[in-house]
Structures are given as C-alpha cells and as structure tokens.
Amino acid sequence: VIRNHFATACLLVQTINALKAKKLYEAIDSSGGFYTNKVAAHARSQMNVIFHAPTPELDKLFAQESTTRGLRLLKGYKSMGGMRASIYNAMPLQGVEALMDFMGEFQKRYG
Q1: The model's pTM
Q2: DSSP strands (E only) in 5-104
Q3: Three-state DSSP class for 29?
Q4: What's the confidence (pLDDT) of residue 1?
Q5: How far apart are CA 26 and CA 96, in angstroms?
Q6: What does the pLDDT average to over 67-74?
Q7: Residues with Cβ within 8 Å of residue 48, at least 6 apart in sequence
Q8: pLDDT digits (tens, 9 = 90+) for 20-61
Q9: Which residues pair with 49 in a beta bridge?
Q10: Which end of the chain is more exposed for a tag (fewer CB within 10 A), N or C?
C-alpha cells in the first residue's frame, strides 16, 4: 500500500513539474521574440528554464525588478547571461504563474 501511494505521489510531482515547464516555455515562445530561449525544444530542462530579454540591460533590469514581486534568484548563469528560473519540486505552480504574470507586465513596459 505504501509503495502505491509513493508511486502515485511521484507521478503527481512529475506531472506538475512537466506542466510548470510547459507553461513557462509557452510564455517564452509566445512572447513574439521579446523573450528567447535558444535551447532546442527536445533538449529543454524541466527544472532550469533559461531565457533572455532583448538586451543584456533588460536582462539585468528584469532580474532587479522581479525581486519587488517576490521573485528571487532569477539572474542567469554567468557564462550565459539572461535569466534562469529554477522550478524544482518545491516551486509551486502558482510561483511559475507569478513569474509568467511578471514577464507579461515587463514585456508591456519595455517591449
């Protein structure tokens, strides 16, 4: 019985993680080119979503302004720049939705 519950819980976590990644990549891909992700669709991570705004200056501003909305640690890898959203198991779907809302508002202001 415990194994069945564990397996069900694992499947639920995997399903939610896939949904979080799908929604975030859709927000990037449907931004009309404002946000970009250069990773081929088949190679994209479900845990660390990398994306860029149109300029390095806007990347920096995005990372700064996002903190005012409670969105933290979005600054990308030093070697790649941009943003990195780590959406591991502990990140709820609502957190990804809050990021997507901020992305839309940011694009309206600076796009």
Answers
A1: 0.90
A2: 48-51, 83-86
A3: helix
A4: 66
A5: 12
A6: 93
A7: 84, 85, 86, 87
A8: 999 999 999 999 999 999 999 999 999 999 999 999 999 999
A9: 85
A10: N
